[in-house]
């Protein structure tokens, strides 16, 4: 019996515009929730960047944010699980990235922070205008990330790198540290958390708090930052548009995000 559905957002729950949820997906999630199933979104975004989807799906009970950096209980208005990197670790990463042509985004305290002089490296051509407007509307723009976030625990870094040589070198360096989980969910991006921080860990931690077994979880994903979550869940779905790695690890393949694949998967078992 399914007691919890965990949903990646971009490429999974959201339509290809990264902004809207299809009516079919909304209807399936409402019907599942009415039957007592808990609904969670599991996203690489932080809390300040998910308001739009919560407005479209008021049934969302939990937000697993920043690739597993924390889990927020919407009903109780509290963080029920967190796993962040220390400021010392985050500061070392920031020092490496800072002098390169890289858009840097740091998540801390549920908010996205970017440095003003790095905005020019954001790949505006990749995303729809409405999505970009919503994204930047939820960001805190500061003059100096180090000064703004000094001493605070950091949930996650997201970077966008348009130069392929810089991308490859940055990926190689970050992986070589051995202390980070380095992944990606969107073209041109590199995302990093503490090595032990990922969606699967946060989903497991949330289930322990809620008294739900892995066999009672259903999860949907499309990108490699969803692999740990798909490995954990008893009912795991890779989208038709998912990476080969997701399709190999998931128990089921559903339709693409453009075809309301979430609703299609839910209807099979709930």
Key attributes of the depicted protein:
14 strands, alpha/beta, 2 domains, Rossmann fold, eight-stranded mixed beta sheet, Hypothetical Protein, Haloacid Dehalogenase-like Hydrolase, Chain: A, domain 2
Give an overview of the whole structure:
There is one protein chain. With 270 residues, this protein is α/β, with parallel strands linked by helices. It folds into two domains: 4-83 and 198-269, HAD superfamily/HAD-like (Rossmann fold, 3-Layer(aba) Sandwich); 87-194, Hypothetical Protein, Haloacid Dehalogenase-like Hydrolase, Chain: A, domain 2. Helix content is 35%, strand content 23%. The protein contains eleven helices and 14 strands. It has helices spanning 9-13, 23-34, 51-56, 87-98, 129-137, 145-149, 164-176, 199-210, 227-232, 244-249, 261-269, and strands spanning 4-7, 38-42, 62-65, 70-73, 78-82, 103-108, 111-115, 139-142, 156-160, 180-183, 189-194, 217-221, 235-238, 252-253. The protein has an eight-stranded mixed β-sheet. The protein has a six-stranded mixed β-sheet with strand order 8-7-6-9-11-10. α2 runs parallel beside α11 (261-269). The longest helix is centred in the middle third of the chain and has 13 residues, at 164-176. The radius of gyration is 18 Å and the shape is globular. The relative contact order is 0.18. The model has no long low-confidence stretch (mean pLDDT 94).
């Amino acid at each position: 019996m399914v007691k919890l559905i965990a949903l990646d957002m971009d490429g999974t729950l959201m339509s290809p515009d990264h902004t809207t949820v299809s009516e079919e997906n909304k209807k399936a999630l409402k019907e599942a929730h009415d039957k007592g199933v808990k609904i969670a979104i599991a996203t690489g975004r932080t809390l300040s960047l998910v308001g739009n989807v919560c407005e479209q799906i008021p049934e969302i009970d939990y937000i697993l944010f920043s690739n597993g950096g924390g889990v927020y209980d919407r009903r109780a208005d509290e963080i029920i699980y967190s796993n962040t990197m220390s400021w010392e670790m985050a500061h070392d990463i920031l020092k490496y990235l800072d002098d390169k042509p890289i858009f840097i985004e740091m998540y801390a305290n549920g908010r996205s922070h970017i440095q003003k002089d790095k905005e020019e490296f954001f790949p505006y051509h990749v995303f729809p205008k409405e999505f970009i407007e919503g994204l930047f509307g939820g960001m805190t723009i500061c003059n100096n990330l180090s000064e703004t976030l000094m001493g605070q625990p950091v949930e996650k870094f997201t970077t966008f790198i348009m130069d392929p040589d810089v991308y490859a070198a940055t990926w190689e360096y970050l992986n070589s540290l051995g202390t980070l989980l380095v992944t990606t969910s969107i073209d041109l991006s590199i995302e990093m958390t503490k090595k032990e921080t990922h969606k699967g860990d946060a989903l497991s931690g949330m289930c322990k708090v809620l008294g739900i077994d892995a066999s009672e979880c259903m999860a949907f994903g499309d990108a490699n930052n969803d692999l740990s979550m798909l490995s954990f869940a008893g009912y795991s779905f890779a989208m038709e548009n998912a990476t080969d790695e997701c399709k190999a690890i998931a128990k089921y393949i559903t339709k693409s995000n453009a075809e309301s694949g979430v609703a299609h998967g839910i209807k099979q078992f709930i």
